[in-house]
Amino acid sequence: MKTRTYSPTPVNLRRLAAALQRGELVAIPTETVYGLAANALDEKACRGIFTAKGRPAHDPLIVHVPDLDHAEKLAEFNDAARRLVRKFWPGPLTIVLPKKSCIPAIVTAGRDTVAIRSPAHPLTRRLLRLAKIPLAAPSANLFGYICPTTAAHVLDGLRGRIPAVLDGGPCKVGVESAILDLTDPKQPAILRPGAVTVRELEDFLQIKISGGIGKRHRAGKKPGMIAPGMLSQHYSPRTPLIVKAAWATLPANTAGVFLRRPSGRHAPNVHWLSQRGALSEIARNLYRVLRDVDSGGYQQIWLEAPPESSGGLATAINDRLRRAAAKR
Ligand code: TXA
Ligand code: MG
Question: Which domains are seen in the chain, by residue range?
Answer without folding.
Answer: 4-218 (3.90.870.10), 241-325 (no CATH)
